[in-house]
Write a structure and sequence with these properties.
Helices cover 38% and strands 16% of the residues. The strands form two sheets. It has an eight-stranded parallel sheet with strand order 3-4-5-6-7-8-9-10. Helix 1 crosses helix 2, helix 1 runs parallel beside helix 9 and helix 2 packs across helix 3. It has ten helices and ten strands. It is of the alpha/beta class and 281 residues long. The chain has a single domain, classed as NADP-dependent oxidoreductase domain (TIM Barrel, Alpha-Beta Barrel), CATH 3.20.20.100.
C-alpha cells in the first residue's frame, strides 16, 4: 500500500483509507470484520464522526480497532454546532470514550458553522497539548473558508481538508485542490466511489474503466481510486462494510496508472466548469 506524507505531519499515511458514513445501517459483525481486514491490508486511515449514527459508528469502530490501535491512523469529526471552545473539548472526550482510545490521530471540524473558528482552533490546539489529538483539520471547506482558516491558524498547522470528490464530482480540482497543495494541506476525498452512482459495465464510461482495470488485473473501482489519488497530496476514503469489497479497494493503493490511461479517464470523466458553490453531502 502506497503511503505518502499527510500534510504537515511527520507521518506517512496510506493513499487509500476507509470511510464509515452510514455504517450503522450495515450488519455490525460484517462491518467490524471489514474494518479489521482493512487494517490488515494497510488501509489504516479509518475515518468516522460523532454524528454518524449519533455516535453508534464511533462505538462500532472502537470495537473493531481494539487490539489494532497502534496500527491505525484514526480520524473523527466534530459537529459545527458543538464547536465552541468548551464544546470541542467535551465532544472530543465523548468521541474518545466511544472509540475506546486515549487519542485521535486526526480531529476535524465537520463543516463550517456559526461558532467562531478562533475558539474551535484554540480548543484543537489545547487537545494537541494534552496529547488527545495528534493533528487537526477541516472538512467541507471551500477556498474562502480554507483561506480564512489558514489566516487564523497560520501555515503548517491545518493537516487536511476533507471534501466530496469522485469521478462525477471533480470540482475541487479547479482551485481548492491546488490551494491545499500550495499550503501543504492534505486533500482527502470522501465518497470517492460516488455513493451508489458508480458507472456500471455496459455504459461507455463503465467500459472505459473496465478496460483499464483489465489491463492491470484489478477492478474498475480500484482504477477510479487510483485516478483520484494520482496527485501527490491526495488521499481517498471509500466506504464499505464488506470484506470482499475492501480487498478489492486495497488494490488501488499500489496501482500506478500510465499517462495514457489518465488521459483516457480525463476524457471519459471531464472536469466540468467551476460551480458557484462547493458540492458536499
Amino acid at each position: 500500500m502506497d503511503a505518502r506524507p499527510f500534510g504537515p505531519l511527520d507521518r506517512r499515511v496510506p493513499v487509500v483509507g476507509l470511510g464509515t458514513w452510514k455504517m450503522e445501517s450495515d450488519d455490525r459483525e460484517s462491518a467490524i470484520v471489514t474494518i479489521r481486514r482493512a487494517i490488515e491490508l494497510g488501509l489504516v486511515h479509518i475515518d468516522t464522526a460523532e454524528i454518524y449514527g449519533k455516535g453508534a459508528v464511533e462505538e462500532l469502530v472502537g470495537e473493531a480497532i481494539a487490539g489494532y490501535r497502534g496500527d491505525v491512523f484514526l480520524a473523527s469529526k466534530i459537529h459545527p454546532e458543538h464547536a465552541t471552545y468548551a464544546g470541542t473539548l467535551l465532544s472530543c472526550e465523548k468521541s474518545l470514550r466511544r472509540l475506546r482510545t486515549d487519542r485521535l490521530d486526526l480531529y476535524l471540524l465537520h463543516w463550517p458553522g456559526t461558532q467562531p473558528l478562533e475558539e474551535t482552533f484554540r480548543a484543537f490546539e489545547e487537545l494537541k497539548k494534552e496529547g488527545k489529538i495528534l493533528a487537526w483539520g477541516v472538512s467541507n471547506f471551500d477556498v474562502a473558508d480554507l483561506e480564512r482558516a489558514i489566516e487564523i491558524a497560520g501555515e503548517g498547522v491545518i493537516a487536511c481538508n476533507q471534501v466530496l470528490y469522485n469521478l462525477g464530482e471533480r470540482d475541487a480540482e479547479h482551485v481548492l485542490q491546488p490551494v491545499c497543495e500550495r499550503h501543504g494541506i492534505a486533500f482527502v476525498g470522501y465518497s470517492p466511489l460516488g455513493s451508489g452512482q458508480f458507472p456500471t459495465r455496459g455504459s461507455w464510461r463503465g467500459d472505459v474503466l473496465a478496460g483499464i482495470a483489465s489491463a492491470h488485473g484489478v477492478t474498475s473501482r480500484a482504477v477510479a481510486l487510483a485516478f483520484l489519488a494520482r496527485r501527490p497530496g491526495a488521499f481517498v476514503i471509500p466506504k464499505t462494510a464488506r470484506v470482499d469489497h475492501v480487498e478489492e479497494l486495497a488494490r488501488a493503493g499500489d496501482l500506478v496508472l500510465t499517462r495514457s490511461e489518465i488521459d483516457t479517464l480525463e476524457a471519459a470523466f471531464p472536469l466540468e466548469p467551476p460551480k458557484s458553490k462547493m458540492p458536499s453531502l
